Prior knowledge:
The protein is built from no helices and six strands. It has strands at 16-19, 28-34, 37-41, 59-62, 68-69, 76-79. The chain has a six-stranded mixed sheet, with no helix packed on it. The chain is globular and about 35 Å long.
Amino acid sequence: MMTKLACPHCGSTEEFRYREDQTVNWGYGVVKIVDDALQIDPDGEHSDFGDVGTGAGPFIECVECGEGFPIPSGLKLNFVDPL
């Protein structure tokens, strides 16, 4: 069971953003991992093309180095209020 994200580019475990092609928000905060679900704070604006979580090509962006990486396999996405 995964309990913490780590950037494959720089190794950071600190701060990440959830991104997808339809959002116009700078990024949605990744809060933490609970029961194999990535807890994402969907607070913010999004595009008229669809709600958060409906876009194609979702990925995680590391705030430390700015690089993106795929959502780790086995993790579900859970859009929640900040924990």
